[in-house]
Amino acid sequence: MNPKSLFCSLVASFATIAAAPAAAETSWPTKPVMILFGFPPASATDVIARAVGQKLQEKWGQPVIIDNRPGAGGNLGSGLAARAQADGYTIFFGTVANAISVSLYAKLNYDYLKDFAPITLVATTPLVLVAPPDLPAKDVKGLIAYAKANPGKLNFGSGGVGTSNHLAGELFKSATATDLVHVPYKGTPAAYTDLMSGKIDLMWDNIVAATPHLKSGKLKAIAVTSAQRAPSLPDVPTMAESGVPKFEAVSWIGALVPAGTPKEIVNKIHSDLVTVLRMPEVKDQLAQSGAVVVGNTPEQFASWNRDEIAKWSKAVQLSGAKAD
Predict the structure, then answer these.
(1) In the CATH scheme, what architecture does the domain 30-124+252-319 have?
(2) Rounded to two decimals, what is the model's pTM?
(3) What is the pLDDT of residue 14?
């Protein structure tokens, strides 16, 4: 081979090698992708996952399967996701419950910070305090007065010990010196059934899941837990406006993959997921339910996770809540 031919051959070889990572990135996915999380159908996480998953399916040309694994305050699904293959085909939708569980549970079978690689914070949502229409209290001040006049009579449901709606109730009890009884369920849909039938009295839940029940008139909204009023429920006051100062408990959902997932796949998922989140139809769909789309960088989401764990650790200590 003459020197010119040898040079051309080497250039072609180097070009092929250099293009390999890009090819691997653009060829993924070549089979169905699963979005897994620890909450049941009709939960806030499920609603957002299905909206996002549909668009990702269209973009990738591969089925995106929603895998609901409720139980143990979201930790059953979290543990399964942590042990999944680190190939990008299992995307975990973590929530505020994961940040809470770090300090709430004495022992977990996964490490939220070490076992996952962050992709992006998908959306944030306030919680809303809801009740059946016939609950005597019409607002937070009336609720506090009624609870103090009837200690131990009112109860509140949650999706399980360690979920944000459980801890929000505990924070409310601590902040208002009221005696409310916690009734945990295996996911909020079951709690809603009992709430609407009058078997339980109250629930703090993600605004995404609560909104359909409010629109139907089956439940009434008493207050939201964000610092500002929710755009989707502009007439519902915040807890702070209602006489419980500095009360804030924002829920959130973020995408992660098992630690060790190749960087080029992490980048691919991040790029495509953020593209989907920025679609006007997706933003509008989630906004109608009260969710605020974020779509930040993996590094920003990693920092968010650390800050949330620190914040909720203090909340768990204040409430005295513990789980086995």
Answers:
(1) 3-Layer(aba) Sandwich (3.40)
(2) 0.76
(3) 46
Does residue 317 carry a pLDDT above 70? Answer: yes
Query: In Å, how far from its chain's centre is CA 225?
Result: 15
Strand-strand pairing, 64-68 and 33-37: parallel
Q: What one-letter code names the amino acid at 216?
A: S
First to last CA, the chain: 72
What values do phi and psi take at 42, rounded to 5? Answer: 80, -5
With bands split at pLDDT 50, 70 and 90, how would you rate the model's confidence at 10?
very low
pLDDT in tens, 206-259: 898 899 999 999 999 999 998 889 988 999 999 999 999 988 888 899 999 999
Task: Show me where the domains of the chain are located.
Answer: 30-124+252-319, 126-224
Run of H or E including 90: strand 90-95
Residue 174 φ/ψ, nearest 5 degrees: -65, -40
CB 75 within 8 A of CB 108: yes
Q: What's the CA gap between 12 and 9, in Å, rounded?
A: 5
Count the helix, strand and coil residues of the chain and give each as a percent rounded to the nearest 5: 45, 20, 35
Which two three-digit tokens encode residue 210? Answer: 């609560």
